[in-house]
Request: fold
Amino acid sequence: MRILIARDRESSGGGIFNYYCAISRHFKAKTYFANVGRPYSFYGKHRDAKLRLTAARLLIDWLTLFVQIIRVRPKVVLLNPCMDPPTFRSLYRDAVNILIARVLGRPVLAFWRGWDNSVCGQEKFAGGNSRVLCRIYKMAHAHIVLSERFKQDLLRWDFKTPIHVETTVVEDQCLAGCPVSPAPGRVRTNLLYLSRVEVAKGVFELLDAFKILKRRNPAYTLTIGGDGPDLEALKAYAKQLELQDVVFTGFLKGEAKVECYRQGSVFCFLSYSEGMPNAVLEALAMGLPVVSSDAGGLRDILRSGENGFIVLPDNDAPLRKKFDPLAVANAIDQLAANPELFRRISELNHQYARERFAAPVVAKRLEAICQSVSANEPMALKNAAEPVKPVCVE
Reply:
């Protein structure tokens, strides 16, 4: 079987590109790629000036996909749309990709990689259930979403083709690594955030919580790993709060990223809106307890008190103020000050990630879905369609 995957280009530095790098080597099928999407200058360098021009880039991407389908004649075209209000630029881009694949007679599998809180639970698809955009996405032969709540949205919008609930993946190097074992009775106070740095990831509220924690215990430290559009603003805010012991590492990959996880104690991820963030899965694999929102697919994989603690946002609050910093600080304190709780959660998270998110395991599940689309037969993947439940470690 041949699978053609339209994925983000390497210079985007995003989770979609890394996801397919991790799992494609484990496919038995022959896998081909077509690059789509804009490059992000803060994640990688791109020399082609045409990629900076939206119209030119879109035409190049659509033409590339068209040529690849003719050349490869794949059994399945795997697209990776994103629900991205208010502009819905990704949604429109991949609608054209669906039309290209269908015109050329190829089955389409739509893997929804991003979802927005503002559309969760809504009665209408973007623009309405009877609009052209919705009808185009219903032309896909099957859909994959990253959360049970996203599946319910598609069903509510009258999508009839099979809908599977899946996860993203943890890179082999994170599964192979292991955290630094705490000394008996030692308080773990090295806090870590490692993802794209932007307002919607809750990083400003994290600094507010860190200020509270530093008043309680000066031993607390915070590492902000990653790059992004709000990095300089976050540095300025840390300076405004007169915070000590905050380290900004910039973009990390490879062994440097693994080492950053290894030296962390509690992983903090207060994102407003998510699909299934790789960073949280990597933190679980490295045995880190997590203090997180329940955005997107996180609700399906995290249980407060088992994987760490969930802190709920105030969705009506303004940006930078959606999380109560005192509630965040209290959740972190429970993990950092209780070595036995830390050990139990660390062991559970490491084991759970290996069993559920390892690249060979995820690749096998995704390839089975592709096979079902190629055969044009609905596939009842009961386990993949049910909310994920953490295993228990005695």
User: Anything to note?
Assistant: The radius of gyration is 21 Å. The chain is about 40% helix and 15% strand.
